[in-house]
Amino acid sequence: MNPVSPLGAYVGGTPAARVDARVKIVLLLASTVSLFATRASWLCALWALVLAAAIHCSGMSIRTHARALRPIAFILAFTLLANALALDGHGDIALSGPVGIDTAGALRGALAVFRIVVLLGLALAVSSSTTPPELADACVALLRPLGRFGVPVADIGLLLSLALRFIPLVSEELARVRLAQRSRGVDFESGGIVRRVRAWASVLTPLVVSLFRRADRLGESMAARCYAEGASDVAAGDALGARDRVVLAGGLALCVFVPLVAYALG
Amino acid sequence: MIEIRDVSVRFAADAAPALDGVSLTFRPGELVALVGANGSGKSTLASLLCALRLSASGLVVVEGIDPARDAASRREVRRLVGLVRQHPADQLVSSVVFDEVAFGPRNLGLSRDEIRRRVTRAIATVGLPDALHADLSTLSGGQQQLLAIAGVLAMEPSYLVLDEASSMLDASARPAYRALLDHIAHEGGAGVIQVTHDPLEVLASDRVIVLDAGRVAFDGLPRELLVECAALWDASLVQSSSVEALRAILRLGYEPEAIAAPLDPSKAVMWLLDAYRAGAVPVSDVQAVADMLVPARLQSDVLAGLPLELSDVAFSYGAGVRALAGITFGAQAGEVVLVAGASGSGKSTLACVASGLYTPDAGTARVCGHAPKTGDVGVAFQRPEDQLFCETVRDELAFAPRNLGCSEGEVRARCVHAAKLVGIEDDLLDRYPFELSGGQARRVAIASILALDASAYILDEPTAGLDAAGRARLHGLARACAQAGSAVIVISHDLDEWMSEVDRVVLMAQGSVVWEGEPCVLARDADAFVRAGLRPPLSCELLQMLSAATEGVDAR
User: Fold this and answer.
1) What is the dotted CATH code of the domain comprising B2-237?
2) Cβ atoms of B232 and B38 closer than 8 Å
3) Site from A135, A183, A190, A232 to mutate, B interface, most B CB atoms within 10 angstroms
């Protein structure tokens, strides 16, 4: 059974899954900056190639990616339209009356949509090739230098780890209580807003109460295992392997190279 | 040594004390059982031992350290005395095996190599597979509980306190759990204090302490409690026919090899057989012990009509996960049926299909001749108290009938009936459900389902986590519902507990029925357990040993 990830299903055994999570996070951040630094030019096509390569290496299907885009499809379409439509008559292509299409705006909108699609795709490639605990550990390892400035990195790490542990527990509990209330005659599917809110209250109330109780008991158990806030240290991560270093260097070089060339060309 | 001297704890000024002048000592290498009814102060004592709570009066000293002195002493006592609780969800902090076990050692500030060494060793001690990077979701509930024990062992404590740590374990996982505690105490040399309601865990201990209303009612050998203080034993521990048999054999003159040796019902039965073969014990005595192990045949009035009927029902969760594979099953009005089987055999899915919560992929589920709709079958899922949410117990009971659209008069009548069935007193009706004790909340939750006034009820592990008195009440409740004319189906993995309380047993494996019949027949049918992939309950194993030896005599 694959571990449940809040960010999408984990696909193991792929080339991307073998890359150290710290490298993937750094590259995701670097490519975010680089993507927005790349001026509109044919070099943007390179980013499409990068995305295609990332999808391929993470073993995900195009369809999964398309599905992930669905929730933001409306915002993307709106962005495109808002940029492309001219309502004050300055549009290059007149449609009717003052309404026309502004080609420069359309291009700007298309570029924005393109950037979001690529970014989301890359983020998805990272989350599908990394287990949640790996992600949490990598975040903590990367934050570790901040410990010197008084940032409670170990506590942040524990917080992430507890959150990851509780997400599947809560969703399981939610399903359990909902089933139980259905058997007591609660109807979740019909009725007006008020009725539905009331129906969900019968699930969320006990869920929240039991979560608070559980948090209490968990806190006690942690104290019993000698946990003291801010007292524990974050272990340094293992050194990166040769492959990870090559991936990191290559990726970073690309992130620097693409915007620079685009700038030189433009 | 842990020394407790004249300790009293009171949670509120006007409340009865949770602990009242308790003095006890605990030594390393000793396996101690701490028993008593819910609310007798066991958990309070457990939290004092590991310095999660400090006593208001009296003295607690662990290996010469007083946790009340300062924070450093408290921390040292917490390192010396490990605590394992009832639910894995209350104590596991990570979703990866290694990180979970390493949590305590990391808090102790140990080196990386030392942490790795301790984690590997603790996991090997509890007998979990050596998959350090496995995700916790791949472990069963029982394995997660073992992991919690490993997490505490990795801190290398001198004492281990287990607060009802086995109460959520399957019956089949218990023998290994008892062996583990025996190993930790007698080979590892740690002092083990287990809070429990399970008589077999008490028998396997070196010493037993009974708490009653915050006072020590007994402190001595398990066999003294079993034989000389039989009434106290029966009031404090879950009833078990194997233990009854053991008591009878002790009265016939059985003496374990050493006065302090742990008592094992199997060894007692072997002694009985030897004594019988040597002519020291008459066959009638052997027969009498065997009879204790056979569940009595109940003379229930089974009414005509089959309120609940499943025929050839198949059900799958998504692709490939087949939970029910063409099951045919029925329950009659007036009977209590036990549905048992290993985890994953489809018992809980059966409940959901029979009550109409899930629609079967194939076959039909019928309640009183029609497809089940909400309210036809009342289902009490595991830990039903988790679904309480109203302001008062009264509203909780009225919730289901109101949802079904009953008139207020009808609602009131159903609430009164349900409250009477489970024994909820009037003064409880206006209480806030979240303030109730464990046993009370369980009964209120079950009453809120009985208020459906259904023709069939399904109770999934209704006694899990309850004390002896709470269990006995629920056994009576299942019977009372049946006598009121409903079909009652109890789902449980604990055959030993339920076999003497039900009219019929249905064993499930891989989504189908592999055996069904009367409990007294099942007790003698070893093959049935094999087919269900279950280890026979201890009482059945003992019965088989006795029957094998006396069969020839019966024939004569």
Assistant:
1) 3.40.50.300
2) no
3) A183
- What SS3 class is residue A14? coil
Taking only the tens place, the pLDDT of each residue in B291-333 is 999 988 777 666 667 789 999 999 998 766 789 999 998 999 9
| Interval B78-104: pLDDT, tens | 999 999 998 888 999 988 899 899 999
Domain range list for chain B: 2-237
With a CB cutoff of 8 Å and minimum separation 6, the contacts of B142 are B169, B170, B173
Interchain proximity A185–B452, CB inside 8 Å: yes
- Asked if B94 lies within 8 A of A226 by C-beta distance, the reply is no
Q: Are B418 and A223 in contact (CB under 8 A)?
A: no
Whether A179 and B381 lie within 8 Å, measured CB to CB? yes
Cross-chain Cβ contact B107/A161 below 8 Å = no
CB-side neighbour CA atoms (13 Å) of A88? 3
ipTM field: 0.87
Exposure on the CB side of residue B430, measured as CA atoms within 13 A? 2
Q: Which of A35, A37, A62, A58 is nearest to A46 (CA)?
A: A35
**DSSP structure string for A186-201:** --SSSS-HHHHHHHHH
In angstroms, rounded to a whole number, what is the distance separating the alpha carbons of residues A31 and A29? 6
Q: Is B100 strand, coil or helix? A: helix
Distance CA B372, CA B366 (A): 6
Residue appearing with tokens 């058997």 = A183
Q: How far, in Å, CA of A64 to CA of A130, rounded?
A: 16
Residue B395 distance to chain A (closest CA, Å): 12
